[in-house]
C-alpha cells in the first residue's frame, strides 16, 4: 500500500515550489485591437481582445501597459479565444496594443489549499486516495446489462462494463479510438443506475465535447432525465445551442425568475400594507380616523402576513425565494460537467461527493488535480487518457517537485518508464485497465507506422485508406539534406532560439503546393518543437500573405486535429566558428527527456486526419538520432 500521507506531503511541497516559480516568472502577453464594449459614461470600461492564453481568466489582477501609461485591469470573461478586460478608465473606442503581465498562481494556490485539507481528512477520504494509487482489489457487483448504441467495439463495450464494477478504472485510448464517445456511454450508464456523476477534463473545450457526447448517449439509449438535473459548470468553449440550457448560470437565472414570480404575491401584500398604513397615517395627522374600508383592508393584510409567519418570517421567506443559493442548486444535480481547475478552485464543491467521478484527458492531469478529484469519488473513478500523449507540465526548477508535477497517473500507478512496461502493466491487470485497440481517425498507412512505433503493433485500423486507386501513403518525409540546411541562433536573444532558414522556405513552399491542390489554408496546421520558431514561422507566412494556417508547438495541438499537418523538426547542424556542429536537443532526445520524447512525437504524428508531412534533415538525424527514437521513427517513413 502506498503511503498516502507521504504522497500528500510531496504534493504540498511540489505545489509550493511551483507557486514560488510562477511568482518569480509572471505570465505575459501582448494583445492587439481591443474594442470597447461598455458605455463611455461607465465608471469602468471593458475592452474585448483576441487572446490565446485561457489561464488569464484566473489572474486576480493584471498590469497593463500602453506606452508610458500603466494601469491595473481585471479579467471579466474568457470565451472562444476572446478575453474581456476591465479597465479603471475609458481609454477610447479602441486600444491598438497593450502589454500584459500577471501572476498566474490562483489555481495553484487554491489547489494547494485543497491538498492541505486532505492531510487531516477522515478515513474514507484517505481510502479514496488510496484507491487512485492502488486500484487493485474491491469490485462492486454489477449483474445488469450495459446500454449502448450497438456500435461499440469489444474493447469499448468491455470498458463500459468494467466502469460499472471497478472502484478505479484506467482507460488507455490512443488517438481516434473512440474515447470520447465511449466516455459518454459510461456516464449515461452511471446516470441510468441513478448515480450522481462528476465529469471533468483539463480544458473547457474537452468538457463541452464530453458533455455533448454524454447527451447524445443519453438520447441514444432512450434514457429520460430532466435537463435541470444536468449542468455545465463554468465557461463553455464551444458555440453550441445544445449546451445553452445546461449552463449553470443560465439555469440559476431561470430559477431566480421563477422564484421572483412566486414571491410577487407576497411583495404585493407587503406593498399594499405599507400603502394602507401611509394613508391611515395621513388621515390621523389631519385629525381624521381611518375609514372602515382602510381598517378592514389593513386587518386582512395583517392576518395574511401573520399566517405567513409574521413580518420577519415573510421577509426571510422572500429572501429565500429571491436569492438562488448556488451551492444548494449544485448539490441537486445528477451530472456536473466542469474543468479540473474549477473543482479545485470553487468553494461550491467543498464536501460535495459524487457516486462516480469521470476524468477525460487524465494523462495530462497533474497528480494534485487527480487527488482532489478522487476525494470526491464515493464509489467509482474512471480515468480516460493516453500515457503515450503529452504529460502534465511544470515550471519549477526544483527537480523533485518538477518530477512529481510532470508525472502522469498511468505511469505513476504502473511504475512504467517506457511503452513496453505500460503494456505489461495493462496485460497483468485486466481487471482495472482497458486498452482501446482500434483507431478510426487516421489513414491506415500512417496509423500502421504509429502503431508499430508507439503501441507495439497493437493498434489496429478500423478505417480503410481513403486515398485514390494508387493507394498513396498518408504520410511523406521531406529530406532537406539535399538543400544543405543549417541552424542559426537569433542574435541578441537569450536561451535556445534556433532558426533554420531552409526549413522555413520549405514550409512556405509546401503550403503553397497544398493551396494549388485546392486545400484551404484553414485545413493546415504547422507543428514545430520550439516556441520561438512558432513566432518566426507565423511572421514569415503572414508576410507571404498566408494568414490562416495555424502554427503552434506540439503542446498547442494536443487533443486537436487538422486535415493536413506539417511537422518541422527544425534541427540541422549549426554553423559555429566556420564549422558545422551537430548536437541533440531535449524535446527530441530521450537521453535528455526520457519518456516525454515518444509522447511528444506521438502527438505530432497523430494530429492529421488526411495527410502528414515531416520535414527533416536526414543527414543530421542519422548523425545525432540514428539509434534514438526519432531516428528509428523517421526511418519507418523512408
The level 1 CATH classification of the largest domain is Alpha Beta
The count of β-strands is 24
In the CATH classification, which architecture of the largest domain applies? 3-Layer(aba) Sandwich
What's the gyration radius in Å?
29 Å
Please give the share of residues in helix.
Answer: 40-55%
The rough form would be described as: globular
Number of domains: 4
Low-confidence regions:
none
Spell out the CATH superfamily of the largest domain: P-loop containing nucleotide triphosphate hydrolases
Q: Structural class per helix/strand content?
A: alpha/beta
Describe the fold and architecture.
- This protein is α/β, with parallel strands linked by helices.
- It has 4 domains: 76 residues, Thrombin, subunit H; 214 residues, 3-Layer(aba) Sandwich (Rossmann fold), CATH 3.40.50.300; 78 residues, no CATH class; 193 residues, Rossmann fold, CATH 3.40.50.300.
- It is built from 24 helices and 24 strands.
- The strands form 6 sheets. It has a 7-stranded parallel beta sheet, sandwiched between helices. It has a 6-stranded antiparallel beta barrel with strand order 1-2-5-4-3-6. It has a 5-stranded parallel beta sheet with strand order 16-24-21-19-20.
- Helix 4 runs parallel beside helix 5.
- The two termini are 48 Å apart.
Summarize the helices and strands and which ones pair or pack.
Layout: H1 4-24, E1 27-36, E2 45-50, E3 62-66, E4 69-79, E5 82-87, E6 94-102, H2 106-119, H3 123-133, H4 154-165, E7 168-172, H5 179-192, E8 197-201, H6 204-220, E9 230-232, H7 241-244, H8 248-285, H9 292-307, H10 310-322, H11 326-331, E10 335-339, H12 340-345, E11 354-359, H13 367-374, E12 377-385, H14 399-405, H15 409-414, H16 419-428, E13 433-435, E14 438-439, H17 444-454, E15 460-461, E16 475-479, E17 488-489, E18 498-499, H18 501-516, E19 524-528, H19 531-543, E20 550-553, H20 554-557, E21 562-568, E22 574-576, E23 579-581, H21 590-593, H22 596-605, E24 608-616, H23 618-625, H24 629-635
Parallel strand pairs: 7-12, 7-13, 8-10, 8-11, 9-10, 11-12, 14-15, 16-24, 19-20, 19-21, 21-24
Antiparallel strand pairs: 1-2, 1-6, 2-5, 3-4, 3-6, 4-5, 17-18, 22-23
Amino acid at each position: 500500500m502506498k503511503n498516502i500521507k507521504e504522497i500528500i506531503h510531496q504534493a504540498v511541497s511540489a505545489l509550493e515550489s511551483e507557486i514560488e516559480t510562477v511568482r518569480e516568472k509572471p505570465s505575459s502577453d501582448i494583445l492587439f485591437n481591443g474594442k470597447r464594449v461598455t458605455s463611455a459614461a461607465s465608471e469602468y470600461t471593458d475592452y474585448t481582445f483576441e487572446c490565446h492564453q485561457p489561464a488569464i481568466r484566473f489572474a486576480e489582477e493584471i498590469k497593463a501597459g500602453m506606452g508610458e501609461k500603466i494601469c491595473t485591469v481585471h479579467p471579466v470573461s474568457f470565451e472562444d479565444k476572446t478575453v474581456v478586460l476591465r479597465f479603471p478608465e475609458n481609454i477610447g473606442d479602441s486600444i491598438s496594443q497593450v502589454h500584459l503581465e500577471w501572476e498566474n498562481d490562483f489555481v495553484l494556490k487554491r489547489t494547494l489549499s485543497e491538498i492541505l485539507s486532505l492531510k487531516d481528512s477522515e478515513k474514507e477520504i484517505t481510502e479514496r486516495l488510496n484507491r487512485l494509487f492502488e486500484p487493485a482489489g474491491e469490485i462492486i457487483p454489477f449483474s445488469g446489462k450495459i446500454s449502448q448504441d450497438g456500435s461499440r467495439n469489444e474493447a469499448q463495450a468491455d470498458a463500459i462494463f468494467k466502469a460499472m464494477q471497478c472502484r478505479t478504472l484506467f482507460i488507455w485510448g490512443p488517438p481516434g479510438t473512440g474515447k470520447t464517445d465511449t466516455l459518454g456511454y459510461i456516464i449515461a450508464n452511471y446516470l441510468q443506475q441513478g448515480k450522481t456523476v462528476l465529469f471533468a477534463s483539463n480544458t473547457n473545450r474537452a468538457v463541452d465535447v464530453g458533455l455533448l457526447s454524454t447527451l447524445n448517449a443519453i438520447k441514444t439509449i432512450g434514457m429520460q432525465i430532466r435537463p435541470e438535473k444536468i449542468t455545465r459548470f463554468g465557461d463553455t468553449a464551444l458555440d453550441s445551442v445544445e449546451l445553452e440550457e445546461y449552463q449553470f448560470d443560465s439555469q440559476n437565472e431561470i430559477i431566480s425568475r421563477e422564484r421572483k414570480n412566486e414571491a410577487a404575491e407576497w411583495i404585493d401584500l407587503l406593498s399594499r400594507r405599507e400603502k394602507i398604513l401611509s394613508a391611515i397615517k395621513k388621515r390621523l395627522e389631519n385629525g381624521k380616523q381611518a375609514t372602515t374600508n382602510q381598517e378592514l383592508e389593513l386587518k386582512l393584510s395583517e392576518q395574511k402576513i401573520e399566517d405567513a409567519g409574521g413580518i420577519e418570517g415573510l421577509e426571510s421567506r422572500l429572501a429565500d425565494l429571491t436569492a438562488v443559493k448556488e451551492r444548494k442548486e449544485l448539490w441537486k444535480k445528477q451530472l456536473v460537467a466542469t474543468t479540473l481547475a474549477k473543482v479545485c478552485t470553487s468553494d461550491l464543491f467543498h464536501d460535495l461527493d459524487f457516486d462516480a467521478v469521470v476524468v477525460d484527458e487524465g494523462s495530462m492531469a497533474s497528480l494534485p488535480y487527480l487527488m482532489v478529484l478522487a476525494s470526491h469519488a464515493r464509489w467509482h473513478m474512471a480515468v480516460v487518457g493516453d500515457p503515450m500523449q503529452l504529460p502534465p507540465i511544470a515550471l519549477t526548477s526544483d527537480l523533485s517537485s518538477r518530477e512529481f508535477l510532470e508525472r502522469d497517473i498511468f505511469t505513476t500507478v504502473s511504475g512504467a518508464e517506457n511503452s513496453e512496461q505500460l503494456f505489461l502493466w495493462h496485460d497483468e491487470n485486466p481487471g482495472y485497465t482497458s486498452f482501446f485497440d482500434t483507431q478510426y481517425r487516421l489513414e491506415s498507412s500512417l496509423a500502421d507506422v504509429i502503431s508499430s512505433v508507439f503501441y507495439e503493433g497493437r493498434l489496429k485500423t478500423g478505417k480503410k485508406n481513403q486515398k485514390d486507386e494508387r493507394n498513396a501513403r498518408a504520410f511523406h518525409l521531406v529530406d532537406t539534406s539535399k538543400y544543405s540546411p543549417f541552424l542559426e541562433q537569433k542574435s541578441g536573444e537569450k536561451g535556445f532560439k534556433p532558426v533554420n532558414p531552409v526549413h522555413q522556405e520549405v514550409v512556405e513552399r509546401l503550403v503553397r503546393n497544398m493551396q494549388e491542390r485546392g486545400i484551404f489554408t484553414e485545413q493546415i496546421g504547422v507543428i514545430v518543437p520550439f516556441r520561438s520558431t512558432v513566432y518566426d514561422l507565423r511572421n514569415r507566412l503572414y508576410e507571404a500573405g498566408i494568414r490562416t494556417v495555424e502554427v503552434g508547438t506540439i503542446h498547442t495541438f494536443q487533443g486537436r486535429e487538422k486535415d493536413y499537418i506539417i511537422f518541422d523538426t527544425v534541427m540541422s547542424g549549426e554553423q559555429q566558428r566556420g564549422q558545422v556542429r551537430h548536437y541533440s536537443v531535449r524535446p527530441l532526445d530521450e537521453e535528455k527527456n526520457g519518456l516525454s520524447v515518444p509522447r511528444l512525437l506521438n502527438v505530432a504524428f497523430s494530429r492529421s486526419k488526411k495527410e502528414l508531412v515531416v520535414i527533416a534533415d536526414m543527414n543530421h538525424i542519422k548523425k545525432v538520432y540514428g539509434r534514438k527514437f526519432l531516428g528509428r521513427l523517421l526511418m519507418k517513413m523512408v
